[in-house]
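Table S4 entry, Recombinase RarA.
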Amino acid sequence: MKPLAYRMRPKKIEDIVGQQHLVGPGKIIERMVKARLLSSMILYGPPGTGKTSIASAIAGSTKYAFRTLNAATDSKKDLEAIAAEAKMSGTVVLMLDEIHRLTKPKQDFLLPHLENGSIILIGATTENPYISINPAIRSRTQIYEVKPLTAADITQAINRALTDTTNGLGDLDLEVSPEAMTHLSQATHGDLRSTLNALELAAKSTPPNDEGQIILDLPIVEECLQRKALVQDKDGDAHYDVISAFQKSIRGSDADAALHYLARLLEAGDLISVNRRLLTIAYEDIGLANPAAAARTVSAVTAAEKIGLPEARIPLANAVIELCVSPKSNSAIQAIDAAIADIRAGNYGDVPDTLKDAHYQGAAKLGRGTDYKFPHDFPHDWVKQTYLPQKIKNKQYYQPKENGRIEQAFKKQYELLKHAQK
């Protein structure tokens, strides 16, 4: 039998769970499908977030033939067979998994078919395509990020699986407790494939009670997911409460409290949330007061990902303690948020002519870059000139703090440079 996650793949674009920034009304993929003007694309994001589902739904909505291959394991002959099919019967939508592992011979074979549109390529990868995918493929595709599903998205998919009598579990007399439902929706961090397969395992391996009903409670779901819940929390807030307390304890410089919440998260097997949160904290809350701590946090998270639990607790504890005892500064996040607020409010002007691109014929006639002063040609590699648009030339986004000798030094240098620019 095919797994539940496979059986529940959407047949049309309206059935896709999540990813509304791509498939919602008026969004880019929905527009392509509606106009039947598909272009090749690369979808990148974490496992189980719907990359294959989007490809399947696109093909179903447009009635094109849909084929799937794996760039790592399928051969050039498999690609040739799909190209022959496209030549005989028309456009084929090809879902190519692990596209970052596409070899040059396969790539060279595909390129002309992408050019003439006989194959609509939908590549899927968990890797950053701007780093891992050959520029020749990138230049012929649109690149879209697929984001982790929210708990609400996963709950929607679970309920659909529980009621679907054709492809889901709707033919079973099945009840999922509120605590088990909350854990199913949160524990896989947006990986719907893992959630649905754990749900099916739980449903098929749990004997019915005396009334013939299968009851899935929290312990059963924990066992099938192989992830413990933080607490039995009917409202689903405990998971986020612990993560919030973890960050706030580090921000408040309480190492013992931070280690306590770290332990709770690790005991629940939630290495992903710990790593994400630590990287955010390092740059958001410690920031310029101790930049080296951020670099060491990145190293600790990388080590934790490579060695896994339980050993991952060691580099993570190192990072947590250092972040707690470090001086704190949120000046960087405040600076960028202030700049973004100006952009969103329309408070910006034209790039000064001296800074505009001058690497094309005729740029000098337009006055582009002609008066630019190259700082490295001047003493101390600095020269006074205007960089901000004239409309906001005196704007100051960065407000330095003095909560550590490093940002104290940054503050002194920043103020010297600002004064010299006047």
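Residues 126 and 154 are 20 Å apart (CA to CA).
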